Amino acid sequence: GGGGAAMQAPRRHPMTAPAADTIVALSSGALPSGVAIVRISGPHTSAVLEHLSIARPPPRHLTLAAIRLDNQLIDTGLVAWMPAPHSFTGEDTAELQVHGSPAVVRTLLRTIAALPGVRLAEAGEFTRRAFLNGKLDLTEVEGLGDLIEAETETQRQQAVARLAGGVSAEIGRWRETLLDARAEIEARLDFSDESDVSDVLPDSVLRNMERLSSELTSAIDAVGRGRIVREGLRVALAGPPNVGKSSLLNALSRSDVPIVSDEPGTTRDVREVALDLGGRLVVLVDMAGLRPTDSRAEAEGVRRAEVEIARADLVLWLVAPDVPPLDPPPQPALWTVGTKADLGPVPAQYSLSVQSDVGVDELLAALAGFAAAAAGSGPPALVSRERDLAALQSAQAALDRFLSEGATDEIAAEHLRQASLALERLLGRIDTEHVLDRLFASFCIGK
Questions:
Q1: Which of 26, 354, 371, 425 would bridge with 280, disulfide CB 3.0–4.6 Å?
Q2: What is the DSSP secondary structure assignment for residue 90, as one 8-state letter?
Q3: Nearest Cα to 413, choosing from 252, 135, 262, 192?
Q4: CA distance to 86, 226, 245, per residue, from 284 (Å)
Q5: What CA–CA distance (Å, rounded) separates 420 from 212?
Q6: Is residue 96's pLDDT more than 90?
Q7: What are phi and psi of 364, to 5 degrees?
Q8: What is the DSSP string of 60-122?
């Protein structure tokens, strides 16, 4: 469908260029399926409908139609017609909802793509056109991508809020505050020879800039919480070989993903298992046991394990009664977990036995509580990416330079302009080409 941006007026992007061709793709799931949606967008969309003997229906109404090629019936389905600019892409768009037959869809795509000026869409090209035509800014595009990939309820909430323009609205308010301050400075520069224009900025301007700096600090602090919601809380299962890491992973995930063996050094690679704990994504990371080794393969596994421990949000340091203990790494968030409790006790914050299924549920509950605390209370943070963090830090640095120097000259105005530019980059209105290809390549064909 057209999505939430279908009816809004386009916010024309400076990089917009009229599309010379029309694109087509399957926009629904894998075939065969109950229904398949073929999406068409571009200046030749109306001609495509005519070629398929489809009378153009009223805009944004589903109409039952026979789809024909050279008077031969291909299928009967529902047709939606969304003329520019009131469509997801901002272009003339149509969607054909047909039976999810591989033969039907193949025939439609082959027929439509063979028409002059029409071709198959590339990955994410419909959304890219929506961005270039001002229907979505870059933060909303990222929210759409996050929504498509969302696995948990909190991820869905975060993605929907970003797609709905939550970040855009906040940045818009910050930009207006900066523009007001810049206007005050520009007025003093332009009318410096007028006796009725003071060289001193009003106290309200400085208070607004101090308030804005505080809000940027809060947003920067929220990026880590937002990242945990979007990517998941990373929990590393670490310790010496044969301490029960893979067995614990199996027990926590109720699966048999890793190979479990009594032979030390069985796990040599990093394996991840995602869990939904209370609507929050928790990623369990199994890895090689830490010990000196002459095996090059095992040594590489140990190196990767050390990298994972360093990037983890929480480390479960496993100890067992039948394995010589190691000193835990200097990790701020680390729990000691005693495994193999059926063999005997060990000093640990949590004690469990995978064989007897004792203590596993208690550890899962503790992980769910830790994940909830790490994500923070209230709505999920809207900022969650390294790109968000870089832009916010750049804006705050420029604003802090303005506040520390406290001048009303061209340099002060430039500091505020740099802060505004950093926020513009976050929305994708300037300097975006280097992020576009990577971003849209992660989208599926047909989106």
A1: 371
A2: S
A3: 192
A4: 44, 18, 10
A5: 12
A6: yes
A7: -60, -40
A8: T--EEEEEEETTEEEEEEEEEEE-TTSSSSSS-EEEEEEEE-HHHHHHHHHHHHTSTTEEEPP
Contact 321, 345 (CB under 8 A): yes
Query: Using one digit for the tens of pLDDT, what is the confidence trace for 235-276?
Result: 999 999 889 988 899 899 886 543 333 444 444 467 888 999
Using CA atoms, how far residue 288 sits from 323, 333, 424, in Å, is 15, 20, 44
**Preceding omega of 380 cis (within 30 degrees of 0):** no
* Cα diameter, the chain: 88
Q: What three-state secondary structure class fits 52?
A: coil
Structure token digits, residue 375? 């994500």
Residue 257 vs residues 245, 273, 274, 356: alpha-carbon distances, Å: 12, 8, 11, 19
Rounded to two decimals, the pTM is 0.80
Measure the CA–CA gap between 167 and 161, rounded to whole angstroms.
8
Helix (H) or strand (E) holding 300: helix 296-311
Residue of 384, 369, 372 whose CA lies nearest to 158: 384
Dihedral pair phi/psi, residue 99, rounded to 5°? -65, 145
Integer-rounded Cα radius of gyration of the chain: 28
**Direct distance between the N- and C-terminal alpha carbons of the chain, in angstroms, rounded to an integer:** 10
Cα(48)–Cα(94) distance, integer angstroms? 9
The count of other CB atoms within 10 Å of the CB of residue 5 is 24
**Cβ neighbours, 10 Å, residue 438:** 8
| pLDDT tens-digit readout, 337-356 | 999 998 998 899 999 998 88
Using CA atoms, how far apart are residues 184 and 205, in angstroms rounded to an integer?
Answer: 8
At 447, is the pLDDT very low, low, confident or very high (cuts 50, 70, 90)? confident
